[in-house]
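Q: Entry one of two.
A:
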Amino acid sequence: MVTKQGECIAVVKGAHRLMERPIIGIDALAVFGNVQISSQAIALLLEHGIDISFFTYSGKYLGHVSADTSRNIFLRMSQYDLYMENEKRMAMARIIVEAKIKNQLSIIKSRRWESDFDWRADVAEIEKNLKKLPEKKDGNGIRGIEGICSNIYFHSYAQMFSCDFKFEKRSRRPPRNPINVTLSLAYTLLTKEVINALEAESFETSLGFLHGIRYGRKSLALDMVEEFRQPAADRLVLKVFNKRMLTECDFDVPEEGVVNLTEEGFKRFCTAYERWMNGMDTNSGEKSFRSRIREQGAKLKRTIMDGTAYEPYIWKKEDVRGEL
């Protein structure tokens, strides 16, 4: 159970206190599975502007509670205006997809390839499709280029693993092997980060540019997640498997059915994720991914309010190393 202890948040189990953190050192709280949180703890968190996100045990995002902060109606009006101008909306969608594809290329090119795998062929094919992006004028065409490049990227990404698990392609709903399970969890946690950052800036998170409007979907958050999938999530998953931080013991793998992380495996991955996102192992002077995400939210706000060109997050090898 999550409780309030003075100006601290504590996690207790029966008579045992498992963890205690001062409120000033908490950025957000994520609650997974059947965990209770006291009303006093909720009140303390909200008083300090700290969001509480809720997930199922398997990592599916359910929703969140956020503090009642000021809402910038002028930002939302400008966001609606931009959305209604199809040409500008599609231009934003192309910027998002271009950034994602460039990040995919950077991940492949920065790899120290030791095998005979022909990664250059995948790079050439991705670059060929990237050149077609400017001519795509509607959402279907833009998403089509994104899908083609992502399939090629995962062909190379699969060859980067040197662990006991096989990864042939990306699979979802449900993910069919431990690496896909971990990727899905990483994407879910990353999406939560982006939602919090955008809502802190008072965006209408349901109104995206690349991802269309759908009931209950945070389309704008999914747009910004595309900039960070490869640098933040894919690189982390690659590291936790190649460094044997997650092994066969950390997964329940039935002959048929859904693959899941065990409780210990889940804790181990979440610990690695927090270290990675906070930049605890980056070189001096580098910014954490959490800082990068907040920066992108502020940049998007300026673009919408002032009409300035949006600069997406393009990963470079020296930007955020995040060695675990």
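Q: Entry two of two.
A:
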Amino acid sequence: MRVFPNPSSGVIQVAFEQEIHKKVSFTLLNSLGQVCQSGILSEQANRIELENLSSGIYFLNLAGFDPIKIVKQ
């Protein structure tokens, strides 16, 4: 799985190496552990909008994957 661009100014792409055959839930947390966004990824390539979030560090949690640190500029 790849998450790019990172850092990002507005949108990140989540791309899975292989085609996924099930939906993958995600949660985006701020540095205080508060949920900023959550949803379902169901495509091999997905977009997550960050435009409404303040600049800072966030953590993207995807079911079945290690958390990923995201920097919003």
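A: Comment on entry two: The two ends are 22 Å apart (CA to CA). Residues 2-72 form a domain with the Immunoglobulin-like fold (CATH 2.60.40.10).
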